[in-house]
Amino acid sequence: MRPVIYGYMRLAATEEEGDESTRVRRELATYAEREGFTLDQVFTERMGANESAFHAMLDAIKRTDVKNVIVPSLWHFARLPGLQDAMRQHIEQETGARLWVIQGQQR
After folding, report:
1. Rounded mean pLDDT of 55-60?
2. Is 10 helix (H, G, I), strand (E, B) or coil?
3. Which of 78, 13, 29, 30 is nearest to 88 (CA)?
4. pLDDT band at 1, cuts 50/70/90?
5. How many C-beta atoms surround the C-beta of residue 61 within 10 A?
6. pLDDT confidence of 50, banded at 50, 70, 90?
7. pLDDT reported for residue 107
8. Following CA atoms 13, 19, 24, 29 in sequence, which dihedral angle do they give, to the nearest 10 degrees?
9. Beta sheet of 98-101, edge-to-edge order
10. End-to-end CA distance of the chain
11. Which of 8, 14, 44, 58 lies at 20 to 30 Å from 23 by C-alpha?
């Protein structure tokens, strides 16, 4: 049985849940399978949402045995490199999970 991995993505304010979301989910699932995982839940951050998908993901990691998270790129966390690093460190230090980043990986 393959280990489970969670996904995380942020939709731009101009994007609707639809084609872009479906494309990114497929990309996450393909990469996860190639690396030996089964993609489970994908936490999707939406601008203006009442609840933070990032915090919901952290809570889910703490409640389960899932210790891997995949993102399309660090830009899905933030635009500023310092904030990207801070969010990555927060995931790793707060939950012990490993972060997998698709963009920039050697194929």
Report:
1. 96
2. strand
3. 78
4. confident
5. 20
6. confident
7. 38
8. 150
9. 38-46, 4-11, 68-71, 98-101
10. 24
11. 58
Give me the pLDDT at residue 106, please.
41
The overall pTM is greater than 0.85: yes
- What gap in Å lies between CA 100 and CA 35, rounded to an integer? 10
Residue labelled with tokens 């997998």: 100
Distance from CA of residue 94 to its chain's centroid? 15
Cα–Cα distance between 101 and 28 in angstroms, integer? Answer: 10
Average pLDDT, integer, range 27-54 = 92
Structure tokens at 92: 């790793």
Q: Which domains does the chain have, with CATH numbers?
A: 4-101 (3.40.50.1390)
Side-chain half-sphere exposure of 54, counting CA atoms within 13 A: 16
Angstrom CA distances, 73 to 2, 49, 65, 78, stand at 23, 21, 24, 10
